[in-house]
Amino acid sequence: MSDEIPSDETATTPTSEPAGPEHVEVHLTYAGASALVAAGETAELALAGNIRRAPVRFEATLKDPLRFREAMSALYAVVGSDYRYVPKDRTAYVAFLRMRRESAGQGLWQAQRAYFSWLLRNDPLAYLILDPVITVHPDQVFFEVFSKDEGAYAKLGIDRDAFDQAGEPTHGTTNIDFSQALFAGLQQLRSYRETRLSLGRDGVKVATATVGEVLEKQIRVPDSWLRGFLQVQSAAALPMETFSLAPMDLYNVLRQLRLQADRKGQRRGLRIELVPGEAPRLVMEPWELVVPSTSGIYKGKAAKVVRVWGRRRLSALRRFLPFVDQVDVALLGSGLPSFWILRGGGFSLTLGLTGFTAANWSQAISFDLLLPRKTQSTPALDAVLGHLEKRWSAGAGELAKSTGLKWPALLEAVQLGCQQGKLMYDIAANVYRFRPLTDDPLDLTRLEYRNPRERIAHDLLVRRGAVKIVTENRIPATGLELTGKVVVEEDRREYRPQLLMADEGQVTRADCTCPAFRKQGLKAGPCVHLIALRLAYAEQEARRLKGGDPKQAITVETRTYSRRDPAGEEVHQVSLERRRLRIRWGRAGVPPRLQTLTFDTLDEARTAYLARIGELDARGFLDATAG
Asked: Rounded distance, CA 399 to CA 379, Å?
């Protein structure tokens, strides 16, 4: 079994959740539709801002219209991407054809409003394509979007030096009307035509058929989408490993992805090998094609291997790639968010890959544990916001000096601000920016957990003795099998959840004795008890690391090491299973050899395990263990 998209359970037990997806009502009103109006040798790109928010104004002439066109096209590709599996269903298509017949005799403006009405009834989430967030700051104008499937975040920052500014701007944040018609208009930008950019609440200044019309949109934004947008912002502020690529290196990766189809049942990750003093290597699975970086060496302190998921989302960058001078990559860890920053000509396009979609609930839980879970403001956050409201942006050093906060407290404050949608971390410029995502305060209690099941699982976890891990069984070449016991007093029952987790954290098999799982399996998403078991395991691992010397707390662990030579990749896997030590080694893609050693005591087995790991480190092997 694989992780699937959670949905609502219908059981009436205390561990069930209410029916229907949670969402936030967002009302957007524009004085007119955004448009590109070309007249002879000049063109005006007029972006209509949301008149429900504080006024934001910016007028300037683009110095490089082609670079702007390709950057905005890449942004549009990100926001419209959706890699979730969708079964074939013609219901919405038939409804669309009916709507088109009904509006065939209407004018353009009336047809557009009819389209919005149909879209609201049939696909409310599609509205998210139309309305990115735009912010005007003293040093930069930037756009932010988030993909429909919650798998990718993108920020396009344009330095003020890339504009010939006209008039004094009004700083702030707003939404802009960004439709498919505007995207089509952007494709008409040319280098020989002077292009003016105009952002304001009054929208288009030139005479069009839409003058005097008001475009209103009522969007039902799912809580999971809004939460994902805020979470990936908060993740950007965490410590990360960074390295650089040449634009041609990224092109080689995209070319291979374009020419090769993924193989069913085989790995689809992008494995990044980092060795201090050597050029980073990008290994494409399952073909084992190695793309070395030509932009310098890795300057980190320790060698490691990081696997990144969502590699095909990188194809959204292909149009902007010819205008890029440098590519920087920031990694949190295997299966966790990664950030790809493309720079060139005063433009910076940041693509954040979450490492999972809504379907991968196990990795999502692991990611949540890295971030604070608070819904109330704190004095530290108020101090940070007070400084940023005056300065608009500031680095960590400036914030620490102005607020008097030490680094741990400052990090928690800025992460909390990102999670609450009050500020954002600009990883490309290495500054924190004041950017309220919405004009009205968000109901943060609804965004504290991904769904009601997760909230109930956390409640069970804090009860003494309610959630226990009964057994941990390491299955060779498969993963770790966890069996738990969850006691629910309200149900007067004891449930037995079971998980099989791969070395990289994915759940490959799940089972539970509860009625909800017996009825629907994982089709309705993981039950409360499976989530509670996964949380209990993460909590147990955290206690092991904090309890004195982490090495002396190891009882069950597997580590994988690899080394590349002209003949290919050599892989060693060392597993400690209490008093038993298993060693597997051989060439990648070939069945490994196996050696099993049994010791009299756990301490002897642990000592041998740590010695074998130290030997592999000394021989130049890379730690390829996920995490």
From this structure: 14
Cα–Cα nearest to 497, from 466, 462, 474 = 466
Q: Do 365 and 510 touch, CB atoms closer than 8 A?
A: no
Q: At what angle do helices 379-391 and 396-403 cross, to 10 degrees?
A: 120
Q: Please give the DSSP secondary-structure letter assigned to residue 371.
A: S
Helical pair 223-235 and 361-368, crossing angle rounded to 10 deg? 50
Q: Could you give the CA distance from residue 505 to residue 2 in angstroms, rounded to a whole number?
A: 12
Preceding peptide of 286 cis, ω within 30°? yes
Angle of the 452-462 helix axis to the 528-546 helix axis, nearest 10: 50
Nearest partner of 298 among 266, 272, 268, 334, judged by Cα: 272
Is the pTM value of this prediction over 0.85?
no
Write down all domains in the chain, each with its CATH number in brackets: 40-85+126-220 (3.10.150), 223-370 (3.10.150.10), 379-434 (1.10.10.10), 452-546 (3.10.450), 550-623 (2.20.140.10)
Specify the DSSP class assigned to residue 588: T
Reported as a single tens digit per residue, the pLDDT across 288-329 is 899 999 988 998 888 888 888 889 999 999 999 999 999 999
Would you state the structure tokens that stand for residue 504, as one six-digit string?
A: 């990289």
DSSP annotation string for 398-425: HHHHHH---HHHHHHHHHHHHHTTSEEE
